[in-house]
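[Q] Does anyone have a clean structure-token version of this?
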Amino acid sequence: MSELRSPIGILDSGFGGLSVALAVRAAMPAEDLVFAADCAFAPWGDRGADFIDQRVHAIVDFLRSERIKALVLACNTATAVSIDTLRTELSIPVVGIEPAVFPGVRETETGVVGTLATVRTIASERYRHLSANALAWAKENRPMPVSILDCPCPGLMECVERGEFKSAHTLTLLEHYIAPLLAKGTDRLVLGCTHYPFLHEAIEAIIRKLAPEKRVELIDPAPAVAKQLARTLATRKLCAPSETAGNVRFYATGANAAREAVLNALWQQNAQLEALQ
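[A] Here you go.
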């Protein structure tokens, strides 16, 4: 296989990373993609760093067997825990994803930015460093005080994995997490887990219910990740020829019919889910 035609590997603990895969597909339609989800061991966001790193490396080993030319960590938790190690271990480009707090602090009009993320992402040193840098930038460049309110969201990722995008349970969880942020004046809400963009409509419904007079922008970092990947491949002259459309293959640990149904609901095209051992 020509290196240019080698696929891009995309991994996540579950199907949330499909939000990134969709952005990559839109930005680079000629590229072949291999998406791998660790559904049988999800969620990662409430687990210890050693467990997460072990599972990330297991999925990366599979993707390397597919001769990928670049790796995308479509998971904030995996990025926080494993990206530095992977960049030392792999010779291919490794692109991660982080909560988009910088756009939040740049754009906020009230000075209050909320971050919805997993427990592990918010507790990570990488996120603390990111938030501190964003706030330091805001202190020098914004005419108002800016704060970032961190909200760990246990249970939300599982709602997406079950295909419960607007269930009563999902809406209850969202209201529990979002209400305190709105009460403190949040006008930019960072979706700090790749699963959360699939709850976009439900989140907007909760905002309309709780604060119909407020304008709250949701910030999804997936398009920025796709742009960064495109720049990286172009710099390394690894872009696939544009004459034909690329294909996408989907793998998951614990693959079954129910998970394939959720995959198709999220991808919104016919997709076959293959077992990843």
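[Q] Thanks! Anything notable?
[A] Strands lie at 8-12, 33-37, 70-73, 94-95, 112-117, 147-152, 188-191, 217-219, 248-252, 273-275.
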